[in-house]
Design goal:
By secondary structure, this protein is of the alpha+beta class. Helix content is about 35%, strand content about 30%. The mean pLDDT is about 85.
């Protein structure tokens, strides 16, 4: 399949899911297992509540797993389950952040939410320029 470099594509095949899962190895101290992530993405195909995406420059250079659901106060939210971007493509972060916002707007979600065990200061510095804030190591952005 001919792909446009750095374009974000929806993924749904076994091979694409396995490639996304393999990126967990590159995440320091990641507690999420490849098997759990694969099962989550596969179940999401059935429920139509979880969506996986990837970009390529020959090889995969970014991937994203999102889930849509209601938060505890009954607002629709987009949950960032997993995101990985090759460190050699720092400008791809902005494209992915805008993509997540576009998905949230398409679903009419009120928030984008993600959680991390990474150091809050590191996450804050990396994502604050995209409008995210760290609250108890929960990363959240209101969608207007």
């Amino acid at each position: 399949m001919e792909r446009i470099i750095n374009e974000i594509y929806s993924t749904s095949t076994y091979e694409e899911f396995m490639e996304i899962c393999s990126k967990l190895k590159e995440v320091k101290d990641c507690e999420l297992t490849e098997e759990k992530l694969f099962n989550y993405m596969y179940a999401g195909l059935q429920t139509k509540r979880t969506f996986s995406f990837a970009s390529y420059d020959g090889e995969m250079n970014g991937c994203l797993v999102l889930s849509v659901g209601k938060n505890l106060i009954d607002d629709l939210a987009i949950y960032v389950i997993f995101i990985w971007i090759d460190k050699h493509y720092p400008k791809l972060w902005l494209k992915y952040m805008k993509f997540v916002e576009d998905v949230a707007r398409a679903f009419k979600a009120k928030k984008i939410i993600g959680s991390t065990k990474r150091n809050a200061e590191v996450v804050d510095r990396k994502l604050e320029k995209y409008g995210y804030k760290v609250t108890y190591n929960i990363i959240e952005k209101d969608i207007n």
